[in-house]
Specification:
The complex is a heterodimer of chains A (425) and B (76). By secondary structure, chain A is an alpha+beta fold. Chain A folds into three domains: 139 residues, Alpha-Beta Plaits (2-Layer Sandwich); 151 residues, 2-Layer Sandwich (Sulfite Reductase Hemoprotein, domain 1), CATH 3.30.413.10; 73 residues, Alpha-Beta Plaits (2-Layer Sandwich), CATH 3.30.70.20. Helices cover 31% and strands 14% of the residues of chain A. In chain A, helix 2 runs antiparallel to helix 3 and helix 4 runs antiparallel to helix 5. The model of chain A has no long low-confidence stretch (mean pLDDT 92). With 76 residues, chain B is an alpha+beta fold. Chain B contains three helices and two strands, in the order ααββα. In chain B, strand 1 and strand 2 form a beta hairpin. The chains are: A alpha+beta (425), B alpha+beta (76). Chains A and B meet through helix 12 of A and helix 2, strand 1, strand 2 and helix 3 of B. Bound molecules: protoporphyrin IX containing FE (2 copies) and iron/sulfur cluster (2 copies). The site of one iron/sulfur cluster (SF4) has 13 residues of chain A, from loops.
Amino acid sequence: MPKHETPLMDELEKGPWPSFVSDLKRQAEKNPQCWDIVGQMELSFKDRMTHWKHGGIVGVFGYGGGIVGRYSDVPQQFPGVAHFHTVRLNQPSSKFYRTDILRKLCDLWERRGSGMTNFHGSTGDLILLGTRTEELEPLFYELTHDLEWDLGGSGSNLRTPACCIGKARCEWSCYDTQATCYGMTMKYQDEIHRPAFPYKFKFKFSGCANDCVAAIARSDLSAIGTWRDNIRINQDEVKKYITGDNVANGGGIPGKGEKFDIQKEVIDLCPTGCMWMEGDTLKIDDAECTRCMHCLNVMPKALRPGVDQGASIMMGAKAPILDGAQLGTLIVPFIKMDPDNEFEELVDVIEKCWDYWMEHGKNRERLGETIQRVGLPTFLRVMELEPIPQHVKEPRSNPYVFWREEEVEGGWQRDVKEFRAKHAQ
Amino acid sequence: MAMSIEELKEKIMEKALKGPKTQLYVKDFYACDPEAKPRAVKNAANDLVKEGKMVFWSSGSTTMYAAKERAQKEQE
Ligand code: HEM
Ligand code: HEM
Ligand code: SF4
Ligand code: SF4
């Protein structure tokens, strides 16, 4: 396959930053098929429309996910991308790879595909970009038998779960995000590989509210680490931050030549206003603290999460497809995340939610849209949870939680005459 | 009483072969046995894929089921 004239694509090689066009061209020297990717993209820029057709009956036998069919709609012009299927591989928890496995994977992919990869797609998976239908079964065989590597999720499946680096390296992790991610991946293999749902469903696991995998923005069910008791304060270390002996926020604050100001950088920025100084002692009203992590991030030597740790469960985040983008809504304020009981509390939440959504969710409706349609109060009843103030985003606009008749003593009936006898009109 | 898995699979095949649509969502099969749990219906449909009678059709974001012979005829 020859090189094409691509003046528009070439523009994307200018400037100081890395360029995927340069990467494509470098790969094309090895695998001429890649010239056709560059060529077809150039044509798309000119025509101002995509030349990819997507969808179809592609996949490996027995799997209803992991491979996304892509075809060119101008295959005569660009035969190298006539078939250009994407393969999603289930990345290891926190994306820890062994280099020998990566080398083997790259060798395999140069033989069986375009050699182009994407570490990682916005799904979290390791993405292999571009192969032909007849290569899929042999590729899958080698992946599973020689590399012991499985496909990830796509379509109306549970998508490949993802987690932050968690307890492997991060002192803030309030639960073992890797054990949880791996545990849920293994428990729900069937849901990952075979379509079970009205639409896609994603889990993401972050160890604290810094939320390094952006779970709250990107997953139908996110577990975000938190604690129930009090922030642990080391007052001596607080003082060292004040005197400048400790470096605040990893050196990010204060600016050059400025002195660290605890009032300005920490206390005034606490979103719930629950911190104050008494002399040189830092005080926190933990009942008001929303566990946002700001103060801990600025003064990690002085402040640590409490010891009664677990996770909050948010549901319903999604990107804009049918409706606008949505962040996750707090559903379960706190559960323990315990590998010793196989994450029993988490599994209970997941399955209650799935049972309802599988039955009542409309086709192509994300969980967040279902919750919006039926209303949060209805969904909380499904989840068998009592509404709490944290479920209300702001009074009067979102969402009203009403009493039901059976929850009110005497129901809706009352004796108006008796009421008026005491309350003049 | 929910019907047996085999009866359910028969109903699902019938719908996939003779129904008005070639590609069906898993939800479209729920009506084959209103008493069955959604997961039981999904498992029955997946059994049919394992047996080679049904195939998955996926756009990448959504996945649907189709009877194999009917889908292949249409793809040509
Ligand atoms: C210059 C005239 C007015 C000003 C500056 C004003 C300002 C305000 C403000 C600041 C609020 C609170 C909004 C919030 O909760 O965020 C409010 C609420 C309200 N105002 Fe006015 N207002 C004015 C005239 C009126 C008039 C003439 C009426 C009725 C005839 C009225 C009826 C209401 C009602 C019913 C609410 C409560 C709305 C709710 O519960 O969401 N206001 N007003
Ligand atoms: C067809 C006519 C009307 C409709 C459809 C209507 C609808 C509504 C709705 C949906 C709300 C919000 C209730 C809630 O979310 O709980 C509301 C609140 C309110 N409406 Fe109306 N309304 C109408 C007429 C009026 C009129 C004529 C007045 C006053 C003269 C009025 C005064 C208010 C007030 C004061 C509130 C706020 C109550 C609160 O904040 O607790 N409305 N209305
Ligand atoms: S989300 Fe929190 S626990 Fe996880 S890596 Fe980021 S800072 Fe650490
Ligand atoms: S974690 Fe956030 S809300 Fe809690 S005390 Fe620190 S800054 Fe305030």
